[in-house]
Amino acid sequence: MASTVTVLGAGSIGAFVGGALLSAGADVHLIGRSAMGQRISKHGLHVSDLHGWDVSIPADAVRFSVRVEGLPPSDFLIVAVKSADTEGVLPDIRRLAKPGSIVASFQNGVDNVQKLRSALPNHIVLGAMVPFNVVQLPDGRFHRATLGELMAEGHEAWHPWLSLFSDARLPLALRTDFDEVQWGKLLLNLNNPINALSGEPLRVQLSTRGYRRVLAVLVEEALMALDAASIEPAAVGGLPCDQIPALLRLEDQEYLSMVPAISAMDPQARSSMWEDLEAGRPTEVDHLNGAVVRLAARHGGTAETNMAICELIHAAEKGGDRRMSPDALLRALSLE
After folding, report:
1. pLDDT tens-digit profile of 315-336?
2. Is the pLDDT of residue 214 over 90?
3. What pLDDT score was predicted for residue 146?
4. Helices (H), the chain
5. For residues 152 and 187, what is the distance between their CA atoms, to the nearest angstrom?
């Protein structure tokens, strides 16, 4: 089998996964923004993780393109674009993926796999959940800064590729409950706008009870909407989802003793939503917290705090406050 892999949307996650697969011997082609191409041209593709793994691939060994025209079709296409861009890249996917090949969504949110599957009946569309954070460091590195292993929608089409992902230090756990896994991941992603609005690294933000109090409310609203929809989210972080709000409200010292993964985070790790605001790009908030709002509405409920934090992020996209203290954020969301 030819290990031909294309990554469409080589941002932080896409570049890290692509670099890891390239280091394991795959034939990888990255497609992304021109700024990413310039970064790789200057530094090469340098990937590392919090366990000490560190690989540098010289720039001339990395195939990177800004456009898809003229590129050969791939055996395995990873879609890593932002959720808002999914429908817009469908023509590119049709050019890039061989009929019958895997199109794997490595995206946040809960709607992308179904959108892709509906639009691509001649392909095997599968979901993958990326639980970890990747931060772009000034030395050109893409650094995996948090714990967690990839989970993927159970399907036999993955089987020929499992050894490659394992060799790339990205072992795949195949799940039969992938919809529930996606909702479990989304509960964790509800923290993204809090991190983006705090201006703090994830470890500092999640170590601060005021910010966690906001997250507790966001998660509670999501759990109520999921219960109304008869969806039971999977425990992505190892803790039953219904226990998350109470855990988040603990005092800092007790919380950190019960969640050692926070202290294990790289001190520079931040959310992708923070990165988007820094770069002046639209965020995924409508596909994360907005998904909770829409789910609640479909079942006759509301998710007012999730709606309000969407509005704060949209204001930040237009130049609004992105350095909010815990008290300021609580007040802005009418939680004080």
Report:
1. 999 999 999 999 999 999 999 8
2. yes
3. 85
4. 12-23, 34-43, 90-96, 112-119, 162-167, 178-189, 192-198, 202-206, 209-228, 244-248, 252-258, 260-264, 272-279, 285-298, 304-317, 326-332
5. 17
Q: Is 227 helix (H, G, I), strand (E, B) or coil?
A: helix
- Is residue 23 within 8 A of residue 47, CB to CB? The reply is yes
Report which DSSP code applies to 325: -
Q: Does domain 4-176 have CATH number 3.40.50.720?
A: yes
pLDDT at 20 over 90: yes
Give the separation between CA 262 and CA 256, rounded to whole angstroms. Answer: 7
pTM: 0.91
Give me the amino acid identity at 85: D
Q: Domain 181-332 adopts which CATH fold?
A: N-(1-d-carboxylethyl)-l-norvaline Dehydrogenase; domain 2 (1.10.1040)
Residue 207 has pLDDT above 90, yes or no: yes
Residue type, 128: A
